[in-house]
Amino acid sequence: MYKVKEKGKNHFMIYRCSMSMEPMIELESSLRKGLERDEFILYYQPQISLLTNEIVGVEALVRWERPGFGLVPPSEFIPLAEEMGLIVPIGERVLLEACKQSVSWREKGLPVFRIAVNISSLQFQQNDFIETVSRIIKETRANPNDIELEITESMAMGPIEKNLAKLSYLKKMGFLIAMDDFGTGYSSLHYLSQFPIDRLKIDRSFISSLGKSEKDAAIVKLIVMMAKGLNFQVLAEGVEEELQKEFLMDIGCDEFQGYLYSPPISADDCEKLMLANAVPLQS
Ligand code: C2E
Ligand code: MG
Ligand code: MG
Ligand code: MG
User: Fold this and answer.
1) Closest atom of ligand 1 to CA, residue 78
2) pLDDT tens digit string along 87-141?
3) What's the CA-to-centroid distance between 262 and ligand 1, angstroms?
4) Burial environment of residue 169 by CB neighbours within 10 A (0 to 12, 13 to 18, 19 or more)
5) β-strand partners of 20
């Protein structure tokens, strides 16, 4: 067990080094080319209802199919893409693809078509963000009710009034709004009550210390209570253990996502999982 882990860890280190030792300029140019060549693909992680144990949605997570490097995780290129401003066109591509996927799942009669999409702050701040989103909806004929936009608390650092107006407009268009990584950022509870949020996503860091830190358990409990009071749904991220899931069920958390059920997987694998959804979970 230990060996496997260590091997996995070393492997990861080598992999990281090979990317990070690469001259920045090369990485930048291949990121640009990657966009031109459509090398970004989406994986999907199921979101499970704690009430019914069924898949109720998925989160779209981008991967870079970089020639010679395999499937590159977002941590390896999103920060740079943000610095370069490339996250704006990449994010647009991601939203377009997620909308297409949602429509396709609806057309195929699959039981799930709610897809959550991560929206970077920079993307959200663009003056034409609403236009872009509207164009994508028109083009794909996706139902905004099926698309959840994941924003983060860093939104509260920008021009609040403008952001609030934008969010309200998106909400009126029918989109679902989720607050991602909740508890890690500049959560002003004041803004939280003003934002038109449908779902709070409790950050993985709190969930992974459940069972180890009584204080984090108290915080998770408090977030769930607060979410209920504010009429938000609440989802726990990064659930890996049965005991974590049971705790979340006990305190009335609505949904979870995490390796316990499934890591992010390809659209095809996700379809298979959704079709097998009726099969009870192994504990
Ligand atoms: P996130 O939005 O908070 O996504 C959840 C991350 O947690 C995903 O990592 C997922 O694979 C991972 N995860 C889920 N369950 C577990 C678990 O049980 N254990 C552990 N250890 N990890 C788990 P991923 O796919 O590497 O994405 C990392 C981050 O990159 C995302 O965090 C999000 O902030 C960003 N990201 C991913 N796709 C996009 C995108 O299309 N646009 C933007 N702007 N950001 C993205
Ligand atoms: Mg997310
Ligand atoms: Mg995030
Ligand atoms: Mg998150």
Assistant:
1) 45
2) 999 999 999 999 999 999 999 999 999 999 999 999 999 999 999 999 999 999 9
3) 13
4) middle
5) none
Three-state SS at 274: helix
Nearest CA to 98 out of 112, 84, 77, 117 is that of: 117
Cα 115 to its chain centre, rounded Å, is 9
Please report which ligand is nearest the Cα atom of 152. 3
- In angstroms, what CA-CA distances link 124 with 67, 127, 181, 184, 223? 30, 8, 17, 19, 25
Distance CA 85, CA 91 (A): 10
Q: In this prediction, does ipTM exceed 0.95?
A: yes
Find how far residue 164's CA is from the centre of its chain: 21
Cα(61) to ligand 1 centroid in Å equals 6
Cβ neighbours of residue 64 closer than 8 Å, sequence gap 6 or more: 31, 34, 39, 40, 71, 72, 74, 76, 77
CA atoms 78, 130, 234, 161: torsion sign: positive
pLDDT exceeds 90 at position 23: no
